[in-house]
Specification:
With about 200 residues, this protein is α+β, with helices and mostly antiparallel strands. It has 2 domains: about 70 residues, Ribosomal Protein S8, Chain: A, domain 1; about 110 residues, Arc Repressor Mutant, subunit A (Orthogonal Bundle). The protein is built from 8 helices and 6 strands; from the N terminus they run αβααββαβααββαα. Helix 1 crosses helix 2, helix 4 packs across helix 6 and helix 4 crosses helix 8. The longest helix is centred in the middle third of the chain and has 20 residues. The chain is globular and about 65 Å long.
Length: about 200
């Protein structure tokens, strides 16, 4: 076997980004990320990915090039990440959670994490469905949507509190206020068609 190229620390961060998100609280990885930002940006660009670093929020993640950006040969690259279309329930939950995150930022100055309880979230969830809907089924749908959002790292379960979830900064980063408005309009249009 040929000799391996010399080890470079930026590889640690590259792998971490390919696995998901890096937060500022991960001090070692965050520091490596910032010190190798230029090299990492170039590296990921070669494979059709944009490195997004939001210093204000303390979060970094990869974003696949949009169709508009896939020019000059980049359209020939296979997509690394599968697009995960959000179901109606996932979209609805994103809207509710994004609104909770907005309130957390504006009103909750005592806590560092945005935590929502399933019971209070369920009270926001119920009115979005016909009044004759079975509450047990609705609750199961809410929890299923929450687990789906956990798979894409928008929320995280809290070990010692099974009925509470942390809304992660990634949800805010991926769904800015303008996108929240668009999703609300989309949900309203869907609801209108069903009436």
């Amino acid at each position: 076997m040929n000799e391996l190229p010399e080890f470079r620390e930026r590889g640690i961060v590259a792998v971490q980004l390919l696995q998901g998100v890096i937060y500022e609280e991960q001090e070692e990885h965050w520091s490596l990320l910032l010190s190798h930002e230029s090299d990492l940006t170039d590296y990921f660009c070669e494979i059709g990915l944009s490195l997004v670093i939001d210093r204000t929020e303390g979060i970094a993640y990869l974003r696949q090039f949009s169709d508009d950006e896939r020019t000059g040969g980049y359209d020939r690259l296979p997509r690394l990440f599968r697009k995960t279309p959000l179901t109606y329930n996932m979209t609805l939950l994103c809207v509710l959670l994004r609104e909770e995150y907005r309130k957390f930022e504006e009103e909750d100055l005592d806590n560092e994490r945005c935590v929502v309880e399933v019971d209070s979230l369920f009270e926001l969830w119920k009115p979005c469905f016909p009044s004759a809907s079975d509450e047990v089924t609705l609750r199961k749908q809410l929890l299923a949507a929450m687990k789906q959002l956990a798979n894409i790292k928008f929320v995280g379960s809290i070990k010692d509190e099974p009925d509470s979830w942390e809304v992660r900064k990634l949800l805010k980063a991926r769904i800015p206020i303008e996108e929240l408005e668009r999703l609300r309009d989309q949900l309203t249009a869907t609801e209108s068609k069903e009436d």
